Amino acid sequence: MARHVVAAADEIAPGASKLVTISGREIGVFNVNGEYFALLNLCPHAGAALCRGKVTGLVVSEEPGKYQLLRQGEMLRCPWHGWEFDIRTGQSWCDPKTMRARSYPVTVEPGSELAKGPYVAESFPVTVEDAYLVIEM
Amino acid sequence: MTTAVLERKQEPQTKLSVIDCDIHPTMRTLSDLYPYMTQRWREHLDTYGLFVRQGLGKTLSHPRMQPAVSRVDAWPPGGGLPGSDLPFMQAQHLDPNGVAYGMLQPLAPGAHSQRNAELGAALCSAVNDWQLAEWTGKDKRLKGAITVPQQEPEWAVAEIERRAGIRDFAQISMPPRSDEPLGRRRYWPIYQAAVEHDLPICLHVSGLNGHASTGGGWPSFYIEEHHSNVQNMQALVASFVLEGVFEQFPTLKIVLVEGGFAWVPALTWRLDKHWERMRSEVPHLKHPPSHYIKKNIWYTTQPIEEPERPRDLIDLIDWIGWDRLLFSTDYPHWDFDDPHTVFKVKLSDAQKTQIFSGNARAVYRFA
Question: 3-state SS of A60-83?
Fold first, then answer.
């Protein structure tokens, strides 16, 4: 396990995401209303590049004729077959028991802490003044 | 994504040889066909436009949940519709998925479905020229489909005669929903030409052509309409078999594209059962329906059946016949099947070879 610095915290705006590569694996890092989550860029259903899908909400209905749009910005819809995944957990909405996108915990750490090392920073300098997103893998 | 997207590696991920029996080449605009149309029809299109056999001619009967019915990641970076950019199609699909041959299924601009029959014939011919110039002439893996105006069988035969000697065409394309069920005798001259030139006939789901999509009438939702392709294909199989098409043309090859296949055993059993009781109504059938279904008809795999227990797929294919299925992806459409993940159950090497390439090699007589 190593700690990988994948982005500066202010680099990914709420609702946006960034695709990074860690040890050959493509991972999408998402900012959901100020919280950060990371998913493997591979749909567990049929292998699409999941993180290129649309960030969306969840339409639910208690009975015909009534609906609600919930959890706006918290669901990711696969670019191929439209399967919906919870960005927070990787869980599939339609098949939550068996279909889950691989997820990784993301932490926000101050540069001053990271300066103590060890960590892997792919392509940018880490300064003590700023905060960074770190994935342990 | 907000930042540069890292493309996946483009080298082939597998040694599996794939013949993809459903690839959609797309026009950027209708004017892409103009170089292959006479002045008379170019002016007609500019003045009157297309006139297909359903309302809302510029859209599909039910709105699709993804633009252009396509994978979100299939829009070419250089612009244009999904499927309109050959280098991008090569980089995203043909190369990484090891496609040895790709069977083109041009759907736009609804050449089969025009109310104006002469315009339809001109569009069919232009679509055929366009396939040669823009696709098969530029990538030898791609094989064209001779698009014919099936409502006017004489014109359809003339189009087949013009194209049959061109090796870049591997089959004849007609829509599964036509004016009448396609087993009817008015269409037989087309089948005569097909067997004379040893060209299979592919029937790709392609709109409604003026019919209600389901036997129960017009559905409310796309999800409700999507499965109606299955009803359509069942009606076609019954028509081809019961009209005696395969008695008249024993070597005719029919390829049903994108209509599923899980329904085949149930329909076959039912038709055989009825034949035992009502054979005298169709005395021209010398064999039970299953005989013709297992000999003259093939099915493409996409969108693959996904049974609750994945292993049930094996029984299903046992019943249909392992020689009947032709792999297809439907690239670049949204319900694309990826050759690496399409089967959720383990197939033997022999079974894989049959479905991914061997059966198509036999049907299309590829070396």
Answer: EEEECCEEEEEEEEEEEECCCCCC
